[in-house]
Structure formats: structure tokens, C-alpha cells
Amino acid sequence: MKSSFYQTIYSSISEAINEDYESITSQRSLHTNNSKYSLKWDLINSNILERLTEENIEVKIVKAGCWSFLLILNKNDMTLYSLMNSKRYETICSNPEKNAPLYIQALKELNSELGFAMNPLFDLNDSNSELANRLKRMCNLFSNSIDFSKITYKILTFTTYEKSVVDMCLKTLDTMLNELRSEKLMDYIIPNFDNSVAQMSEDEIKMPALKITKKAEKRKGEKESVSLKSQEILLNKQA
Question: Comparing 44 with 64, which gets the higher pLDDT?
């Protein structure tokens, strides 16, 4: 279950930043890229929502100001996950008091029994606490049967290079935003390529053949169809 869960997250991110993004931007030549960051996140979130459909997993959309993000509850390991780019995570850790978003400050209280801060920084029953209310609202998105006192919150970070996901880690923080544990996840991941080696001559270099996903095959066909239609229109105009 653990490997398939992380594999789904990996594939969702990998396809979003590569062929999904390319399929949208290829329809129109953009002169600026103001939406590049947010568009990729929308594609990542959409892929995850559409793929994580197991009964033991709940995925909810949370709004934080003008930004929307996902919370993923895995009932098997009693863990609540959120996703974050590794660069963003490093920025937060460099100065948690200044850089940590309010939703992180609230969610980390689920780990109040971990690390150096053994007592919660606020009372979850205190209706006057902004962070307590924020945490309650996020927890209330999930099934009423969930006992959040037994839930651990973890941040799943990912690193990208060009159009590939090159690293994924699982970060566990205490309520002081100290990193208690960092788990490498790439050991659970099968990259999006085929390791089989094609038969070549002795003078040729043997390289692993890339595996094209079904989504990429479909879009390749769509692009070829659009290209043929464009050529037909151009020929008609020249006639």
C-alpha cells in the first residue's frame, strides 16, 4: 500500500509538470509565464484528486486566502499529508516564525506529542484561538469518525529538475517546526521509464528505452491531428 500510494503521488506530479503542462501551453504561444507556477499546482492537485480514490484515503481541497491546496488523509497509517516544493520547504525552515504559513502553523499542532514541545502551543478547544479554529475547520472536512488526536501530520516534499521529479521526501515536524525525521521516498518509486535495453550493434551505445504513458500517446495523436489539419488549412489558403 505504501509504495502504491507514493507511486501515485509521484506519477501525478511527474505528468503534471511535463506532458499535462505542455499539452495546455502548446495550444497557445505565451509571451509571459506568470501562471506557470500556479498552473502546475492546479494540474498536480487535479491528478491526485482523480487518482487517489481508495476507500482508506480521503483527499480534501483546502482554501488558504487565494490559494488552494490538498490535504490527504491515509487511514491505514493514520497520517495527514500535504505537498510542498522542496525549495518552499527550505524557505520555511530557514525562518519558521516569519515564513511558515498559517495552515502549517495550525497543522503542526497535530504533532504536539512529538519532539521538544510536549505541550500544545494553544488549546484546541479555545474558540478564541485563530490557529485552533483554523485546524478545526481543516479537520472537519474529513469523516466524523476520524480521531485526530491519533493523527500525525507530515509534509511530502518534492524536487524537480527541468521536467522531471528527481527527489521526494517525507518530513515530520514538531510544534516548534523542528524537523524530527526525513524519509527518502524514491526507494518506493518506479520512474516513468522502461529499463529494458534494446538490441543494438556493437558500435552503438545501449540506452534504456523510454516508456511513453497512455496519456502522452493520446496527446501525441491529438497533436499530429492538429498538425495535419493546420497543413490542410494552409494548403487551402494557398490554392
Answer: 44
